[in-house]
Amino acid sequence: MACANDVEVAIVGGGPVGLVTALLLAREGIAIAVLEKSLDIETDLRASTFHPPTLDLLDDIGLGQDLISQGLVCPQWQVRLHPEGDRAVFDLGVIARATRHPYRLQCEQWKLSRVVFAALSAEPNAEIFFATEVTDVVQDEEGVTLDLGGAKAPAKLRARFVVGADGARSAVRQALGFAFEGETYPETTLLATTTFPFADHLEGLTNIAYCWKAGGNFSLLRVPGRWRVSIYPREELPIEAQITDEAIQASLQEIVAHAPGYEVLETRPYRVHKRIAPHYYRGRVALAGDAAHLNSPSGGMGLNGGLHDAFELLAALRDIRAGAPSPQRLDLYERRRRPVALEQIIAQADANRARMRERDPAKRREILADLQAIAADRERHEAHLLRTSMIAGLRQAASVS
Has residue 369 been placed in a domain? Predict the structure, then answer.
C-alpha cells in the first residue's frame, strides 16, 4: 500500500557517494529520499584525494570547479626514501590526453558533501532526512519498504528502488544477507594533521608523498592549510602506547626534528580493510561505495571508486526507467563495477600497502629503482598513471556489455 512519503529511489547513507547518487537521480526528475543516521554532514578525517577521471565526472555535472576552488591542485606525486630524499616522481601531465584534469586534487571529502548537499537542497523532488536509521529492508515484486528510526523521518518509507551507500557497516548490505568477504589488516594507522611546513624542510617534496623510513613508513598528503600525516605504528608495541600525545610528537619528530614541538590539530586512529560484497544488488536494492567494497587508503582510490559506482548506477536506473528489465540492468551494473573494485582498486591498494611496508633496505632500493625507470619511460609512465589514476578501471568497466 502506498504511503504519503513514497519515492522512486531511497538512498541510504548521506556521505559523498550517497549524496552524489541522490543528486544525479534528482536531476533526472526522479523523486528521491536520502536517509542518513548522523545528525549532519560529517567533517571528521576521511578521504582527501580526488583522481582525474572523478574530477571529469564532477565537472560534467557542474560541481568540479566549486570543489577544485576549495582544494590543492597536485600535478605530481612521489615515492621517496627518508631521510635520504631519493625519490620516484610521477607527473600527471603525461596523461593529459586522457583527462581534462591531469592532476590529483587534495581536498577533504566533506567539502564535496557540502557542495552536493547545497545542490541537492535546491531540487524540488529530493528529501533529506538526517538522524534517521534504517532498521529493516523488505522487498516485494513492486518495491522496497524501509523501516526507519528517527524523530523527523516517517516510520516507514516505500521506494521502487533502494541504494545502500551506508558505508562499511552497511545496514542495507546486512539486510540483504551478504557477507563482506576479505580481511582486516593487522596494523592500526594513525592519521594526524599539522600546520608544520614539511616542504620547507624536505627537498623536492610534492604535496603527495609515500615515504619509507628506518623500520617503517609514513605518508604526507597536503590539503589547504595543513598536512595529513599517516603514521604506521610499530607492530611489536601496543597501539595504546603509540597514540598518546607524546608518541605522536615522537613520530613527527622522526620525520623532521622540530625543537618547539608540533602543533597537532586532529588525530584519528583507524583500521584498514580489504573486503568486497559477493554481489552488488539483490532484487531492487543495489550497493555502492564502502557498502560494497573496502580497500587500503594507499593510493586514494576508495572514495573515487564509490563515486564511479554512483555514475554507473545513474546509467542503470536511467535505462530501467526507459524500459530495460531491472534484473538484467542491475546485473550489468555489478558486472561492470565489481571486477574493477576487485581487480583494480582493491588489488592496487593492497600492492601499494605491501610496497610501502617493505622493510629490507636493499629491496626498497630495488623497488625505487623500478619506479624511477617507469617514470623515465614515457610509455610506461603513461600506462602506470592511467592505472593508478583509475582511468584504466573506468575503461575496463565501460567495455563490459
Answer: no
The pLDDT value given to residue 271? 87
Answer with the residue of higher pLDDT: 320 or 270.
320
- Tens of pLDDT, residues 212-238: 999 899 999 999 999 999 988 776 777
Hey, what's the cell of 231?
603514521
What CATH number does the domain containing 38 carry? Answer: 3.50.50.60
Contacts for 11 with CB less than 8 Å, ≥ 6 apart = 18, 21, 22, 25, 32, 33, 34, 35, 162, 163, 165
In a domain, 294, yes or no: yes
**How many structural domains does the chain have?**
1
* Owning domain of residue 298: 7-73+107-181+274-357
Mean pLDDT is highest, among 4-8, 12-16, 188-192, for 12-16
